[in-house]
Design a protein that fits this description.
Elements (H helix, E strand, L loop, with lengths): L3 H18 L14 E7 L4 E7 L4 H13 L1 H8 L4 E7 L5 E8 L12 H27 L3
Antiparallel strand pairs: 1-2, 2-4, 3-4
Pfam families: DUF4268 (PF14088)
Protein name: DUF4268 domain-containing protein
InterPro entries: DUF4268
Length: 145
């Protein structure tokens, strides 16, 4: 078991190490669509790459999510076959959002440095595919709002 401070230090080291090992400018929040962002997530039990819909206007979230649902087959067949669409994903805060994500299937814990390399490679491969998909269909996605 780790203290809160030790856990925070390990998390910081995980993300710093990722940035140094794979120095690259990721798309993430720079989609130019409010509340529509790609994210890397990692904790004590799992890691995933996701696309979150958190526009302050719920109608915009619905429209964007529906637009991605229209592209679902393309995303699954050409980019990320293991992608999961969740229209009611609950954040730790209790808030529900729409989330499209890919889960890292290998054993992982942010507290176990032996699992970091596989996770980093998963992050790079998966986010690259998500970005390629987004850039290809960006105009279509933006038509939603």
């Amino acid at each position: 078991m780790f203290s809160k401070e030790e856990s925070a230090k390990i998390r910081k080291e995980f993300w710093t190490s990722f940035g140094k090992s794979f120095p690259r400018k990721w798309l993430l929040y720079n989609t130019k669509i409010k509340g529509f962002a790609f994210k890397f997530q990692a904790d004590r039990k799992k890691a995933f790459v996701c696309l979150d819909f958190e526009h302050p206007e719920e109608v915009a979230n619905e429209l964007l999510y529906d637009q991605l649902l229209a592209l679902r087959k393309i995303l699954e067949t050409e980019y990320l076959p293991e992608v999961i669409f969740d229209n009611a994903f609950q954040l730790e805060s209790g808030k529900y959002i729409h989330r499209i994500y890919v889960l890292h299937e290998k054993k992982f814990s942010i507290h176990n440095k032996n699992t970091w390399r596989d996770c980093y490679e998963f992050f790079v491969e998966t986010m690259t595919q998500f970005e390629l998909f987004y850039y290809e269909y960006e105009d279509f996605i933006k038509q939603a709002i």
